[in-house]
Design goal:
Radius of gyration of chain A: 12 Å
Distance between the termini of chain B: 58 Å
Strand content of chain B: 25-35%
Shape of chain A: globular
Number of domains of chain A: 1
Helix content of chain A: 40-55%
Order of helices and strands of chain A: HEEHHE
CATH architecture of one domain in chain B: 2-Layer Sandwich
Oligomer: heterodimer
Radius of gyration of chain B: 21 Å
CATH superfamily of one domain in chain B: K homology (KH) domain
Largest interface: A-B, 33 and 35 residues
Strand order of the largest sheet of chain A: 1-2-3
CATH topology of one domain in chain B: GMP Synthetase, Chain A, domain 3
Shape of chain B: globular
CATH topology of chain A: GMP Synthetase, Chain A, domain 3
Structural class of chain B: alpha+beta
Chain lengths: ~80, ~240
């Protein structure tokens, strides 16, 4: 699942080497904390959080297969 | 990049407050909703956001707005960009196949067409995974389409639209909406009263408008804002 988040985030940003994803696996819940270069924040959040929400929707569909709950946080 | 927090009774008000504080026009504000306090009986409703100033290129690709429902949908066509369409198409295919593999979905993308206006990709696969890929009301397919379009057009000034389909879902969905629109139009004529549809995205609203544009007895229009925007079918006054 982490590779999915990484592929998507790196496809959106300019500074791909600045992408850091922290995975927290607790009980039945996967949480991803996504960190990008400050100048790339808008590219992963989007207007009114639209891009971040699209990321969450795709991640949820993938997580459904494994029966896990998934959260994606963009941290700054 | 400076982020500030702001709040208001509505998202628009919160964004306006952020824009005032940052000293820019409201359409340059990039905001994420932190939380929304629904209040009690409509009082005390409060939206809290964090906001920053967005570069123009960070706007990403917008869904066609509603003013584009009818006419502006056909984007301007640039000539001599065949090779650019090819590179956007190749990039879209690359991102999409990597994403589908990482999702562990039994699904393969196939490039259907690439023109200077639009890249079309069809995804085939096991019915179970295709169902997951489409999602409720097609929302997963739409989210993926949105992300792939941004990724494939990254750094480009003239964006090329990217349309994803999965086992013919979009055409089936379109036919269902058209049939429903025509049935509602029939009821509107019979009862002489307006019919208010469920909220729909710009693309689905456009399907309704187009399905009834040649019907001499009804008119259609959209009302409401954001996620609440919906079509109304109204009897045409004789």
């Amino acid at each position: 699942m982490k590779d999915l988040i990484e592929i998507l985030v790196k496809a959106l940003v300019d500074e791909q080497d600045q992408v850091e994803i922290l995975e927290i696996n607790r009980d039945n819940t996967l949480t991803y904390q996504v960190q990008v270069a400050p100048g790339d924040l808008g590219k992963v959040i989007g207007k009114d959080g639209k891009i971040a929400n699209a990321l969450r929707t795709v991640a949820k569909a993938a997580a459904m297969k494994s029966g896990k709950k998934i959260y994606v946080d963009i941290v700054s | 990049m400076t982020w500030i927090e702001a709040s208001g009774k509505t998202l628009e008000e919160a964004k306006q407050a952020a824009a005032t504080e940052l000293g820019v026009a409201v359409d340059r504000i990039c905001a994420e909703i932190l939380d929304e306090d629904k209040g009690f009986l409509g009082f005390g409703h409060l939206v809290r956001i964090r906001a920053t100033v967005m570069d123009d290129e960070q706007n990403g690709i917008e869904e066609p707005s509603d003013s584009a429902d009818m006419d502006e949908f056909e984007a301007s066509i640039d000539v001599n960009v065949d090779s650019e369409a090819e590179s956007v198409g190749a990039e879209a295919m690359l991102v999409l196949s990597r994403v589908l593999e990482a999702m562990k979905f039994e699904a393969e993308p196939k490039l259907v067409s690439e023109t200077p206006e639009e890249i079309q990709i069809e995804i085939h696969g096991s019915s179970e995974d295709i169902g997951r890929l489409i999602g409720r009301h097609g929302q997963t397919l739409d989210a993926l389409q949105y992300l792939v379009a941004i990724a494939a057009n990254r750094g480009r000034y003239d964006k090329i639209r990217v349309v994803l389909d999965a086992e013919g879902y979009r055409e089936r969905h379109k036919q269902i909406i058209e049939a429903k629109a025509r049935e509602l139009a029939r009821q509107v004529k019979e009862a002489g009263q307006e019919a208010v549809l469920e909220p729909q995205n710009p693309r689905d609203r456009r399907i309704v408008h187009m399905a009834l544009v040649d019907d001499p007895d009804v008119i259609t229009y959209s009302e409401g804002e954001g996620d609440e925007r919906h079509v109304v079918i109204s009897p045409k006054k004789q």
